[in-house]
Amino acid sequence: MNQATEAYRGNDRLLSGIILGVLAFWLFAQTTLNIAPAMAADLQVGQSLMNIAVSITALFSGIFIVVIGGLADRVGRVRILMLGFVFSIVGSLLVGLAPSGAMGGTFLMLGRICQGLSGAFVMPSSLALVKAYWDGAERQRAISLWSMGSWGGSGFAALFGGLMAENVGWRWIFIIAAIVSLVGMLMVRGTPESKAPPKEGYEFDLAGVLTFMVTMVALQVFATQGAVFGWTSLASLGLLAAALVFGFSFYWIESDNPNAFVQFRLFRNLTYTGATISNLLLNATAGIVMVAMLLLQEGGAMTAQKAGLLTIGYAITILAFIRVGEKLLQRFGPRKPMLWGSYIVGLSIILLMPTNLMLGTYTVLAVIAFSLFGLGLAFYATPSTDAALSNLPADQAGSGSGIYKMASSLGASFGVAISSTIYTAIAGHNEAVRWIEGVITFEGRQENLASREAAFFALLANLVMLVTAIVSVLITIPKGKTAEHG
To answer: Which domain CATH number covers 136?
Structure first.
């Protein structure tokens, strides 16, 4: 870096621009978890295609976030951040201006992919700029505000989406997102470029990126469209075969590659491995938001606005208690708060599972459940991040943090995909699960049994993922205040 760059210090204008870029992804793009039914009806696309559109944004963010983070270090973090704003503007406009009918699905998918790429471009480059241009207490403040933009944005997404969709129309969410990104871009404009020192002998890991991308996309399409194609159909089996072949190819390519974007040697550290796996699975429970919104709107005839209001506790508790997770980490170490947070998330899922109850009772449970969901994630977040990264060698910290963040996005993507697929499949053809009516008495209206049964099994799948996360923590995270170096 030149002297001018070294002398530069971040200011509130730059920080505000960065936060707007973060919000464009975490607040605006994530509203689809609530407004998917309204979007599908308006654009005249099937629910299975809509399920892909909801989850594919986090998928593309997860696939590329590590690669783009490394690219930002070499070509310039400001340049990559500005490209992230461009992807956000283009993606938001493609979704917001998508026509109804045959072309609607094409606009929707392209727009959602661009929004996912915007997240991959914005998140690592903006965090790198925070690290480069703020120091000490000012950096801590900047990171806290950045974190509130991401965690707070995701917490308010369902509520915000419902309010917007009911009062001004869902398309305005994405048109405003494009304007927000443009304003953020203008606020960042003129910031001195920041780069990492060049690495000798570095080569871009194109083969690794391509094989990883094909593997993840094949798995995503298999998870979301398998029920439509038929799980034993040629198309489904072909997707599964492609995922396996390219997955093994990816592992083979990356294993002996010094420039691999996924460094498998990181997973020799058991604590890092356990924290990353549990992080992926905790983020996968984001599927409960979409399942609850589908159930309340399709089964309970609620508006998107009213259903979204039930999630307000999620937004409040995650913002109010995320610093509490930090204090618990300092007092007890990472293991206990990670487990406490996971247990609380598990309780929130259990409270959402009695879909046999009357709507009035269920809405009360939903308010409590989403408040606990935010509380559990707040307890878990900081201790998990610390457990994953604190004992990695300095030369692996960048790669380790990128993979950990990638697990967050991929977990959310596959969690939403699996949950929505189970819900859609059973809601459309619930003959195979009708036996549950002999076990559980469904009160009130009976014409919505398919939706209620579908939600129960989709939520049960989330509970299984949560239990797996708890097992991962119990096995891998050492007791005490500090984790041993691996």
So the answer is: 1.20.1250.20
First to last CA, the chain: 33
Query: Is 282 inside a domain boundary?
Result: yes
State mean pLDDT over 381-392.
82
- Domain of 256 in residue numbering reads as 206-260
Which range (182-196, 379-393, 411-425) has the least confidence? 379-393
74-130: pLDDT as tens digits? 889 999 999 999 999 999 999 999 999 989 999 999 999 999 999 999 988 998 898
Alpha helices in 76-135 (DSSP H): 77-96, 104-133
Nearest CA to 450 out of 424, 470, 417, 476 is that of 424
Q: Which two tokens stand for residue 240?
A: 């599964």
Q: Which residue has the tokens 């703020």?
A: 134
Q: Are residues 33 and 19 in the same domain?
A: yes
Sort residue 302 into left (φ over 0), alpha (ψ -120 to 50) or beta. beta
The pLDDT tens digits for 303-319 are 999 999 999 999 899 88
SS3 311: coil
- Virtual CA dihedral for 303, 304, 306, 309, nearest 10 degrees? 180
Judge whether 227 and 425 are in contact, CB under 8 Å.
yes
C-alpha span between 142 and 160 (Å, rounded): 24
Do 386 and 338 meet the contact criterion of CB atoms below 8 Å apart? no
In this predicted model, what pLDDT tens digit does every residue of 322-346 receive, in sequence order?
A: 888 888 988 998 999 999 999 999 9
Among candidates 127, 178, 175, which has minimal Cα distance to 149? 127
HSE of 308 in the Cβ direction (CA atoms, 13 Å)?
Answer: 25
Number of domains in the chain: 3
Q: Are residues 27 and 99 in the same domain?
A: yes
- Domain membership of residue 201 (yes or no) is no
Q: Are residues 273 and 374 in the same domain?
A: yes
Structure pTM? Answer: 0.85
